[in-house]
Amino acid sequence: MKKVASFLIYLLVPASFALAQYDLADAELNESINTITSKAKTQFSEFKTFITQNYGVGRDKYDMWQNSIGMNLGDIYLAVEIAKVSRRSQDDVIASYKKNKAQGWGVIAKEFGVKPGTDAFEVLKGHAYQKANGKPRPVVAKSKPKSKTPAKKATPAKKTTPKETVKPKT
User: Fold this and answer.
1) What is the 8-class DSSP label of residue 17?
2) How many CB atoms lie within 10 A of CB 55?
């Protein structure tokens, strides 16, 4: 019985950690990153080509991130995408990842100004959704906050009478 329980713990702990590691304070974004990671595992060479071609990452640098630093495929995607949307270097994001990876991607993203409610965060969500689903993210219209001051009432237009025209004497 102990062996079965130990085996289940062995299987479940890494799985739960894998799902929780992209805590970016947004369920949709977390889901997109998990989908990207899952697809990348089954289409590894296509994913590597996508990263190297679309983000200007050399294959040697990609291999170093994965093998020396221990970044998984979702980590690599987040690093290059955060660098892109924040207009910072990939090396800056990688340095922050090495320093803060125990705290998670939410902390790293915030360091680069990519936090919920910002334009950069919305761009990140859109890019991740498109990569995960193969189509653009549906646009959700934001409702305008209601004004606390009442709207001015329209005043009725004044009635005017036509001016009499004076004919010149001939």
Assistant:
1) H
2) 16
